[in-house]
Amino acid sequence: ERAYRVVASRIGNETGLFVLLFKDQSEARRIDRMRADFIANASHELRTPLASIAGFIETLRGPARDDPVARENFLQIMHNQTQRMARLIDDLLSLSRLEMKPYLKPGGQIDVVRLVEGVIEATRHLAGEYGVVIESTLPDAPIPIAGNPDELTQVFENLLENACKYGGAGGRIQVSAEQKNPLEEVRVTVRDFGPGIAEEHIPRITERFYRVDVETSRAQKGTGLGLSIVKHILTRHDARLSVRSKPGEGAAFTVHFPPVPPAARG
Ligand code: ADP
User: Fold this and answer.
1) In terms of domain of life, where is this protein from (predicted)?
2) Could you tell me which residue, 1 or 187, shows the higher pLDDT?
3) CA gap 72, 221 in Å, rounded
4) 8 Å CB contact between 229 and 91
5) By the 8 A CB rule, do 217 and 224 touch?
6) Which of 190, 204, 215, 217 for mutating ligand 1's site (highest number of atoms within 8 Å of CB)?
7) Is 250 in the pocket of ligand 1 (CB under 6 A)?
């Protein structure tokens, strides 16, 4: 706001230049603020488990020293906290890697059907732990898309893991892929039948560290970074994410990829 006032008062003389400066400055400030918020959030998220570990070390040195049952219990909690920190650091590294190379190398073509099948197979074990069955409706023929297979694997892993973690109560997950015709977008949907997401939260769930219900998300081993990584990767692919949900009836996450024109298929 201040930047705007200063500029406005000088606009008389050299309009173009000042307007340009103003734009630059406010964008730079916005980015600075985002970065500061991000560092504050990340530090807080790392501090919390660290404080808990430090507390248990003290307890193990003192009151719990000669109590094997309490000791085992505290060691387990400390183990969980270190895992939580490791997950967070992995996610932070993923985000920073994505930011360091903002443009995707012109990648090859991949068959999204096979990619999704691979992720489903890799997630079955986790689904089993949540008591969830993964059903899939995938075409027999390949659907080519342009992209990086490792990054896109991460996208579908995150969506399927979320469906297990948050939608697990629904007992099943449906994964489908379709392209109506070769000139239309390719859609891959991961749908669960859990509690869903209230409308007011939907626009915010791809924000970094945003969680609808902090208690549940924490219990569910969340970092709050999963969907922001998904969004980042999809933007690099000219793809986008849409979310539909009716609270109580589950959530559907659809990834929309641009078509690879038949002439460009290889
Ligand atoms: P997290 O690491 O917490 O899972 P995400 O960025 O992947 O972070 O998701 C952000 C939040 O969106 C989650 O904490 C959860 O509240 C909500 N969410 C994501 N997927 C689902 C889903 N399938 N059903 C209900 N809520 C979901």
Assistant:
1) Bacteria
2) 187
3) 21
4) yes
5) yes
6) 217
7) no
| Amino acid, res. 154 | Q
What was the ipTM of the complex prediction? 0.98
Rounded Cα–Cα distance for residues 169 and 115 (Å): 26
Cα–Cα distance list, 11 to 2, 8, 18 (Å): 14, 5, 7
| Tokens (6 digits) for 72 | 């085992």
Tokens of 250: 């589950």
CA separation for the pair 112, 187 (Å, rounded) = 10
C-alpha distance from residue 244 to each of 96, 190, 192, 201, 228 (Å):
29, 11, 11, 11, 17
Residue whose C-alpha is closest to residue 138's, from 175, 172, 109: 175
Structure tokens at 96: 């920073």
Task: Tell me the whole-structure pTM to 2 decimals.
Answer: 0.84
Report pLDDT for 223: 87
Centre of ligand 1 from the C-alpha of residue 192, in Å? 12
CA dihedral 79→38→223→156, nearest 10 degrees, is: -130
User: What is 164-219 written as a DSSP string?
Assistant: HHHHGGGSEEEEEEE-SSTTSPEEEEEEE-SS---GGGGGGTTSTT--SSHHHHHH
3-state secondary structure 84-98: HHHHHHHHHHHHHHH
Distance 244 CA to ligand 1 centre (A): 13
Q: Could you read off the pLDDT of 103-115 as tens digits, one per residue?
A: 776 678 999 999 9
